Amino acid sequence: MNPKGQIEDDIAKAIIQWEKDYMGRGPEDAKTDILRNMIIVSLRGVLSKAEQHLARDKAGMTLVKKLRQQLVEQGRSELDKVVAEITSAKVVSLHTDISTKTGERIFIFVMDRNLQKHI
To answer: What domain of life does the UniProt record list for this protein's source (predicted)?
Structure first.
């Protein structure tokens, strides 16, 4: 595997482990892509059965999204640390969203430098 592919794989594995440790369960699948100064992580199958059931109506969807957002904010320092250790770069910002319809979650880490140039 090339260095970029290895780093992407390492980040995907680390995010899966973070989800398992911090959220109590991991996604079914994870894919990471490095693009310039961004790391884009796409997770499939992140919702529990209870969250899927709750997300059947608008109020439940909102509740699931707010809860997941709050959990990420509380665990953010650990996420930043894991990504920084793998990339040797600093996380400048983190953006995330979750689809209550598809059970997918996206993380976008904005780094302090163009990783693509340094790999």
So the answer is: Bacteria
pLDDT tens per residue, range 50-91: 999 999 999 999 999 999 999 999 999 999 999 999 999 999
State the pLDDT at residue 119: 81
Token pair for residue 63?
């509740």
Range of the domain at 90: 3-118
The pLDDT value recorded for residue 102 is: 95
Count how many domains the chain has: 1
Domain with 45 in it: what CATH number? 3.30.980
- Structure token digits, residue 43: 């997770």
